[in-house]
Design goal:
Number of strands: 15
Oligomer: single chain
CATH architecture of the largest domain: 2-Layer Sandwich
Helix content: 25-40%
Order of helices and strands: EHEHEHEHEHEHEHEEEEEEEHHE
Shape: globular
Strand content: 25-35%
CATH topology of the largest domain: Dihydrodipicolinate Reductase, domain 2
Structural class: alpha/beta
Largest sheet: 9 strands, mixed
Radius of gyration: 20 Å
Number of domains: 2
Number of helices: 9
Strand order of the largest sheet: 14-13-12-11-7-10-9-8-15
Length: 333
Amino acid sequence: MSDTIRWGVLSTSRHAATTWIPACHAAQRGELVAVASRDADRARQYASENGIPRSFGDYESLLASPDVDAVYIPLPNHLHKEWTIKAAQAGKHVLCEKPLGLDAAQAEEMVAACRAAGVTLAEAFQWRHHPHAEQTRDLLQSGAIGDLRLIEAGFSFPLSRAGDVRWDPSKGGGALYDVGCYPVALARYVTGGEPVSVTAQAVWGQTGVDDLLVATLEFPGGVFAKLHGGFVLALDRYYRLVGTEGWLLADYAYNPKDDRPNIIRQYGPDWEQRSSVEIAPVNSYTLMIDDLSERLLAGQEPRFPAEDAIGNMRAIDALYLAARTGRTVRVGE
């Protein structure tokens, strides 16, 4: 039996070239063997530039290749469902970029298709595989800040490219889909639960997508989250977790650095820093690829099963509904 999973990429995206592909080359249990584009010349050029052995001029040909075990899908959001289901029908495991679909119904359909085909589906939130996230949750569970009561989290950056796909509502554009989904996932990760109700306000840009969305989420047990995602703010990635006896502040949230230490700072109720945890630099994308590849080889469920993505999409659905109607929305309604 092979000791590596052979990966293919459906897309010649800039994001894949700068993050996922170098990480896959560095992986021990994953091997990057192919890339596909709808343009054969573009696929060949991309493969040459990124050290990929094979290229295909259409996605179907890569999916038909017996030399590919699993595919990574960094396509625009509106294409996630179509190509995840086609990959599943071709017998390929799937690692799909976030958000998994455009709504919870799409996510449920994608999960069902992969289950029916006997393949694994996972959502590519790489930060969850980094010790940074694990240490944060361990500190919370140890009672380091007492009982968690408030989550403050955000992800924003200035999106200046006028023709960027993230400005296109027909292709799943919008700040909540693109960056706001990270704080939503973070809140669910640290609480270990699902929000019961949400409120939200949004600024709708010229193209019709949200370029800034600010939200509150209520979790069981009296825990609240204040979150935001935006395309019109300075670069900001953070989360602060406030408890009854102190709070935690994380550096480089959602994008832990692989060229410098990552630090979690613990503060007491008097705002004085009590301690800090320094985590050695590692590549969270490589950790994600190796972890998923290892589990695929062993025939195990992924660390974060695809059903978790359905929960994130339900929260996102509720947040968009709240932003459009101006009312408090029960999640799942």
